[in-house]
Amino acid sequence: MSKDKNKGPEFTEEEGRNFSKALNNILHDPDNNYIFEDLGDGPLVDRTLRPYRGQSHTDHGERGKEVVSGLTMRDIGDCIARGFAQAQDPDGKSEDFDWTAVIQNSMCNVEKMMGIFPNLPERKR
What we know:
41% of the residues lie in helices and 0% in strands. By secondary structure, it is mainly alpha-helical. The protein has 2 domains: 1-50, no CATH class; 53-125, no CATH class. The chain is globular and about 45 Å long.
């Protein structure tokens, strides 16, 4: 991938195919908690009703039940952009992303903007 500061990143044809394949695997893997079966304009209401079965400290457990409030769409976009930046290889040697880290970092940034970070359930002793 080449970068020109006046343009976005430019992918080679092979890099584009690999990215597309990886994204498709993430979105359609039945074991993936971030699955979306329909990427079109259809309603996602039924997706919001799925259970929170993850570990309590994750966005798929109790922590994930927190309702986002007080943020604009731009704020949330900023949190996602920060999540991507934080998930990059700090040495810049790899351009691969850990997609789980992108989501986790993004959600932590949302919590920070809401003033509730870290939003962790109380530990049971």
